Amino acid sequence: MAPAGAFNGCYKTRSKAQWGPWKSEADGWSHPVVPINGLVRTKGVDKKFDMELVAYGLTGAASEF
Fold first, then answer.
1. Model confidence over 37-56: pLDDT tens digits?
2. What angle (nearest 5°) sits at the alpha carbon of residue 57, between those of residues 45 and 26?
3. How many Cβ atoms are within 10 Å of 64's Cβ, its own excluded?
4. What are the tens digits of pLDDT across the range 22-39?
């Protein structure tokens, strides 16, 4: 497990997405050691939202819902 903020060497990207009339622009931080897509944090540029990885592991995943 790795606590949030412990990912030195992340790379930052900015993405724009559109689905019909809905548009969004966000900055994303990724790291190659994080499984699946490497996403560590996403923060909205044009809309207020922030999502941050708090921990990850290769086994024992459980949904909060």
1. 888 889 999 989 898 887 77
2. 5
3. 3
4. 999 999 999 888 877 888
